[in-house]
Amino acid sequence: IQDMEKSWDDELLQMVQSLPKEEAWVSGLSLYLYQGFWCSPLVIKPIISFQTHFPTFDSDVIIATFPKCGTTWLKALAFSTLYRNHFAMDEHPLLTFTPHQLVRFLEIDVYLKNPCPDLENICVYKPRVFATHVPYASLPTSMKDSHCKIVYICRNPMDMFISLWLFNDKLRQERELLSVDEAFEKFCHGICGFGPFFDHVLGYWKASQENPNKILFLKYEDIKEDISSRLKQLAMFLGVPFTEDEEKQGVVEEIAKICSFEKLKELEVNKKGTHVTGIPHKEFFRKGEVGDWSNYLTPSMVERLEKLIHEKMDNSGLTF
Ligand code: A3P
Hints:
Blueprint: H1 2-6, H2 10-17, E1 21-23, E2 30-34, E3 37-39, H3 41-53, E4 61-65, H4 71-82, H5 99-102, H6 106-110, E5 129-132, H7 141-145, E6 149-154, H8 157-171, H9 180-188, H10 197-210, E7 215-219, H11 220-225, H12 227-237, H13 244-249, H14 251-258, H15 261-266, H16 268-271, H17 299-313
Parallel strand pairs: 4-5, 4-6, 6-7
Antiparallel strand pairs: 1-2, 2-3
The chain binds adenosine-3'-5'-diphosphate.
């Protein structure tokens, strides 16, 4: 963090110092409220670079997610669907690269250390695909105004919360992690990276309702329930529908299989090494199930979160 701050100019330092600040879930780390969402000071400069400099192409595909809602899975699915005619299944790039290396985050990877990265050479295949956790309202204007396609995935907040808490536990090193109750309290107040969760989800939900040709809104649980239908929906939305021949040849099932939790988790490339953020690749693959929250949340926590879901979601037409 100190190294990062050295690269900040006075104006940025002053701006960050003026932002509301809260303790993060891990001791000694802070979150700042930038443009209405909480973020680590490490990503504020990259977010500003992304917002200011990213030139969106109409052909771009953006994977937008709240952390721990299925980003890794959606990256693998979108990559495999879009570029399925570029390689044979036994030479699939997912066998040698992680989903996060194939579809890179803008603010926490591409712009992390470089305010003007060489975007030309980042995406091997075209159209370009990038990912972001930035809320809809804070996306660069060029992205909102262009004809690019955005695919969003959300997840039941109870599973998302537990996934995030356990993820923090893996990354905390020597630092203390808040107890599940304390982290839950923060989560209910919207305090976690890119939170409030409900604002993030509703921002993309409303935008997808207003512009369904531009934003596809998916749910983790729906993909789990019927991956073939969701893959066909994704392919159609991206303008590369599966042909009858492809369906007969089982291409949809092959994509589902190579992107499955079981397959990806066991690949050497996902077991070793670290992401550019320093996060070990293996930490992106934990259990991959629906409903694991029931092993962690007490009945009173569930009751509180259900109440919050009603409060936030009623009248939106979106349910979990
Ligand atoms: P759990 O912690 O509940 O297991 P993200 O990719 O947004 O960081 O989300 C991580 C969550 O997605 C983790 O959930 C992880 O195990 C799960 N996940 C990762 N790859 C997956 C896949 N191919 N299929 C289903 N779930 C996956």
